[in-house]
Design a protein that fits this description.
The complex is a heterodimer of chains A (583) and B (260).
Chain A: E1 2-11, H1 15-25, E2 30-34, E3 50-51, H2 62-72, H3 79-99, E4 113-121, E5 126-132, H4 138-152, E6 156-159, E7 161-171, E8 174-184, E9 190-200, H5 221-228, E10 233-234, E11 239-246, H6 256-259, E12 263-265, H7 273-276, H8 286-298, E13 310-313, H9 319-325, H10 327-337, E14 346-355, E15 359-360, E16 366-368, E17 374-380, E18 385-386, H11 398-420, H12 432-442, H13 450-464, H14 471-488, H15 502-526, H16 544-547, E19 549-555, E20 564-570
Parallel strand pairs in A: 1-2, 1-9, 2-6, 9-17, 15-18
Antiparallel strand pairs in A: 3-5, 4-5, 7-8, 8-9, 10-19, 11-14, 12-13, 13-14, 16-17, 19-20
Chain B: H1 2-10, E1 26-35, E2 45-54, H2 59-70, E3 89-92, E4 95-98, E5 113-116, E6 123-125, E7 128-129, H3 132-140, H4 160-165, H5 183-187, H6 194-204, H7 212-219, H8 233-237, H9 244-259
Parallel strand pairs in B: 1-5
Antiparallel strand pairs in B: 1-2, 3-4, 3-5, 6-7
Helix pairs in contact in B: 3-6, 6-7, 6-9, 7-9
The chains are: A alpha/beta (583), B alpha+beta (260).
Chain lengths: 583, 260
């Protein structure tokens, strides 16, 4: 076992991790540990844009952006955090431009901006052009630009180092991070990274579902590691289903397609969003559009042989306009569905896209250990975290913004904390739990295959925990997960080697997925209301009296609900009183 | 649609197939993969699996089917599974491609589909190669914006024409399909290779950048642009459709012009 020592260790090298590293690396000795090569991270799959009230093409201001974010999140957003994000958005975009990001430009040479779902002028009056973009590969350009800037600043990466545990130690002031345990994929060796500050930036958990826009590698590792270390997870019942996944595949088709004029139609050719969101129609927030689409299908107005999708119509747009603004996504339609978007509408259906919940943090990115106190030295940013700027439904483009604003903050504060902190001693048995985890996955217990269990998990989550939920379906998911956990105890993997043992890796990832599926389901079962991405058919209305609170779940074997205890945390409100959410 | 297919596959046999005209074609294929694990093998060998695959399946789906159902030790990198992360470049029927972007129906299924690791980089295990030499070349061409002027309060302005000048080369996902398809790179691993030159191009032709001359000097090296023999393998291999050979030619021209 090798031991390394850094002031700051960042776990994950997507947008949030690398944005944190750029700040931290200039202030403190920093290492970035990542299970993938940095440029493979899923930030690169984001397409449409990053919102900031630059007002380059029409009147706009950060207060309108704050309001849209709060309303878009169905008022479960912490308003102080939303305000920070909308204000700092402007510098976040300018930082990226200064680093070299090739934004699309206006005729005068300024950063161009376009419309996106839920972003409006003057508190909902009409759509506003707020999203800064680079064709339909904005995430790709952000990931590349951040990686390039990391190279410029000589950031130290440990590529294909999979972090499997957080080392927490008791001090007179409480529990504090002392480092992380990491598994080197190339050699199968364990490494301990001792650190004064640890930043989690390891992304989401979309692979809990079958139909998802997420990469195979998005298995919620960071969230599960925090949870297993006794830390809470916040608002995990809120998963965003992106309206336009390629039907049957889940591959993302950006909301920019609708921002540029695309229209959703049902089997009758009707522009059905006019019925659900009369003012902003196809550019309503994602939860509303996804639910409307699912409802069209449910009521028999779906398209195709199985009537199980709707159509995204771009055929009225000029091919030259499509090529200039939406080249990648139209190519996805051609490659994967054999559909020519110039002349044919594209089959689409909602796809699991984003976890609004995650490791709870304050606006510095510091992680909460309960509803009141944070753990100095421990940070989280990006999809793994819950600040909460997205509340119960994230607006499009706000994730690319989130990773830049809160990645920067987490990196800065982690480095500042490390400057005055001491290294904490790493206990002798720091790797014990990880060794046990790996040994367990490697030992032959039975004939259960990881892939089969994962498939069954994803099937039950798609069936029972998707756009529409009831207490009954959620309970069914929980029962299924319990049975799958039993099967998981009898897995055996085939690869017995040390080098690049991805068979072993998938077994570990499945353990994380099972845990998070359970967490999401328990949180969903407790929330007897409908809000944002969480829609309970048995409780179809928002219930501010009882549920205007964040959910906080903890591992607790004594709890009768799947060994998970549920508490709450107040929502921070500053300017905006909850109103009915209409578009 | 693949969901429909998966369902049919799992339903009881007495269930009728989906309405005849919409029935999804299935493919019987043979997948032939070059295997090598230095931990256990003294040399590489080929493994073959007959598989039944469906509708919109890609080579990556076939690899997953083997890994998930038949041989868990088969190792390959992949992540996004739709051609944007660049993890799964491999040699498929002798051509460099992304496994997640190569539809089975587009291949000749009458013969085994051969899958090998990309060439010119050391094989670590099965389809996994050591990417470090590739990224080393990338880092050497200074792949970041250099601008020593005072940072403006707002954005740096750039005309739409200036922005369009380097648009094509910003699409690179660093998958190494181009570099590892280049015969010069196969015989001389010191050659920067197409991907590094593409990324140099992205900055050399960015009107905001000031280090173009330094990059041109780096690429004027004996392992630089002049080693390119214009075989167009790289352009053909690029899964992002970048005109790689054209970009290299533009860099050559710029080196020549700056030397005058």
């Amino acid at each position: 076992m090798q031991v390394h020592k850094y002031d700051v260790v960042i776990v994950g090298a997507g947008g949030a991790g690398m944005r944190a590293a750029i700040e931290s690396g200039q202030r403190a000795r920093t290492a970035v540990l990542t299970k993938l090569y940095p440029t493979r991270s899923h930030t690169g799959a984001a397409q449409g844009g990053m919102c900031a009230a630059l007002a380059n093409v029409e009147e706009d201001n950060w207060e309108w952006h704050t309001f849209d974010t709060v309303k878009g999140g169905d008022y479960l957003v912490d308003q102080d955090a939303a305000e920070v994000m909308a204000k700092e958005a402007i510098d976040a975009v300018l930082d990226l431009e200064h680093m070299g990001l090739p934004f699309n430009r206006t005729p005068e040479g300024k950063i161009d901006q376009r419309r996106f779902g839920g972003h409006t002028r003057d508190h909902g009056k009409s759509p506003v052009r707020r999203a800064c973009y680079a064709a339909d590969r904005t995430g790709h350009m952000i990931l590349q630009t951040l990686y390039q800037t990391c190279i410029k600043h000589n950031v130290e990466f440990y590529n294909e180092f999979y972090v499997l545990d957080l080392i927490m130690v008791d001090t007179p002031e409480g529990r504090r991070p002392a480092g992380v345990v990491s598994y080197e994929l190339a050699t199968g060796e364990l490494h301990v990274f001792q650190a004064k500050s640890v930043v989690f930036a390891s992304g989401g958990a979309g692979k809990v579902f079958k139909t998802t826009s997420n990469a195979h590698t998005l298995t919620g590792d960071g969230m599960a590691i925090a949870f297993r270390n006794g830390l809470p997870l916040e608002d995990m019942e809120f998963v965003q289903f992106h309206p336009t996944g390629l039907a049957g595949l889940g591959i993302l088709v950006s909301e920019a397609a609708r921002g540029e004029g695309g229209i959703l139609r049902n089997a009758d050719g009707e522009r059905f969003m006019e019925r659900y969101a009369p003012t902003i129609k196809d550019l309503a927030p994602r939860d509303i559009v996804a639910r409307s689409m699912a409802n069209e299908v449910r009521e028999g107005r779906g398209c195709g042989p199985n009537k199980d999708y709707v159509l995204l119509d771009l055929t009225h747009l000029e091919p030259a306009h499509i090529d200039a603004k939406l080249p990648d996504i139209t190519e996805f339609a051609r490659t994967y569905l054999g559909v020519e978007p110039y002349t044919e509408p594209v089959p689409v259906f909602p796809t699991a896209h984003y976890c609004m919940g995650g490791i709870p943090t304050d606006i510095k990115g510091e992680v909460f250990q309960d509803s009141e106190t944070t753990v100095p030295g421990l940070y989280a940013a990006g999809e793994v975290a819950c600040v909460s700027v997205h509340g119960s439904n994230r607006l499009g483009t706000n994730s690319l913004l989130d990773i830049n604003v809160f990645g920067k903050r987490a990196g800065t504060f982690a480095a500042e904390y490390a400057r005055d902190a001491e290294f904490l001693p790493v206990p002798d048995d720091a790797t014990k739990r990880t060794e046990a985890l790996l040994d367990n996955a490697r030992s032959p217990h039975g004939n259960e295959k990881v892939a089969a269990i994962r498939k069954d998990l994803q099937d039950t989550m798609d069936l029972n925990m998707q756009v529409f939920r009831t207490a009954e379906t959620i309970q069914k998911a929980l029962d299924d997960i319990a049975a799958l956990e039993e099967r998981y105890a009898s897995i055996s993997i085939q690869d017995q080697g040390k080098r690049f043992n991805l068979d072993l890796l998938e077994a570990v990832e499945l353990g994380f997925l099972l845990e998070l599926a359970k967490v999401m389901s328990v949180a969903a079962l407790h929330r007897d209301e409908s809000r944002g991405g969480h829609f309970r058919e048995d409780f179809p209305n928002r219930d501010d009296e009882n549920f205007m609170v964040h959910s906080m779940v903890y591992e607790d074997p004594s709890s009768p609900t799947a060994g998970i205890r549920q508490e709450t945390k107040p929502v921070i409100m500053t300017r905006y009183e909850p109103m009915e959410r209409k578009y | 649609m693949s969901t429909a297919v998966t369902e049919n596959q799992n339903k009881d046999a007495q269930q009728p197939a989906a309405e005849g005209e919409e029935a999804i074609p299935t493919y019987d294929i043979v997948l032939k993969v070059r295997r090598y694990n230095p931990e256990f093998d003294s040399e590489a060998h080929w493994d073959e699996w007959p598989l039944t695959m469906y509708g919109t399946d890609r080579v990556l789906d076939a690899l997953h089917k083997v890994k998930w159902e038949l041989d868990g030790s088969l190792s390959f990198r992949r992540s996004c599974a739709h051609g944007v992360c660049g993890s799964d470049a491999m040699r498929i029927n002798g051509r460099n491609r992304l496994a997640c972007k190569t539809l089975l129906k587009d291949l000749d299924l009458s013969k085994p589909i051969t899958v090998e690791p990309i060439k010119g980089l050391p094989c670590e295990k099965d389809l996994i190669v050591d990417m470090e030499p590739f990224f080393q070349s990338y880092r050497e061409i200074m792949p970041f914006l250099v601008n020593e002027d005072h940072t403006p309060t707002g954005e740096r302005y750039q005309s739409q024409e200036d922005r369009a000048r380097f648009d094509d080369t910003t699409k690179c996902i660093l998958c190494a399909a181009c570099t590892s398809s280049c015969p010069v790179f196969w015989t001389d691993g010191q050659y920067f290779g197409p991907a590094a030159i593409v990324n140099a191009h992205r900055f050399i032709f960015d009107s905001r950048d000031q280090a173009g001359d330094m990059r041109l000097e780096i690429l004027n090296d004996k392992e630089g642009v002049w080693r390119c023999r214009t075989t167009f393998n790289c352009t053909e291999a690029c899964p992002r459709g970048i005109q790689v050979t054209k970009a290299i030619a533009e860099v050559k021209k710029a080196v020549f012009a700056s030397a005058l």
